Amino acid sequence: xxxxxxxxxxxxxxxxxxxxRTKARGLVHRDGDLHGASHVFVIxxxxxxLQVLMQKRSADKDSFPSCxxxxxxxxxxxxxxFDRAAVRELKEELGVSGPVxxxxxxxxxxxxxxxxxxxFHDNEIDHVYIVRIDEPExxxxxxxxxxxxxxxxxxxxxxxxxxxxxxxxxxxxxxFEQLIYILxxxxxxxx
Length: 191
Prior knowledge:
By secondary structure, this protein is α+β, with helices and mostly antiparallel strands.
């Protein structure tokens, strides 16, 4: 898991504003400093069923290698806001430019894991977005080194896997449940 550049993250206050301090990615995850990330779920309806484009993370990722994850997600670069990070991640990870993701909700997530024998303390404020794309899969161009592959998956199937603690998935169950709840209410309201 090599990075081509030393990534610096803004350290955030509890309300999501910047503290004015920055810190290297590895140190942030070692020390558990609060930082920001944007999560974008690419969605579509197929034969009346809600589907989500899931990405399989590269085997070289520093956390959750080779797991099914959010369509596109990533940390905020220094000085970047959540909206710009969402647009950037869609472009970098999937090669998708043009559609502007729609903000859905904010969550605060903290957990401690171990990857490659090293502690990994993630402490994030995440803005969660959706973007509806009904294009064929060939529209997506996953970023080598970041994304192994992408696949449309039925939202209910993903939710069942998360509720069963399927280790093939690394999306937070609570995040996905809230996303599906919001989308289902919207779909029901449009009928």
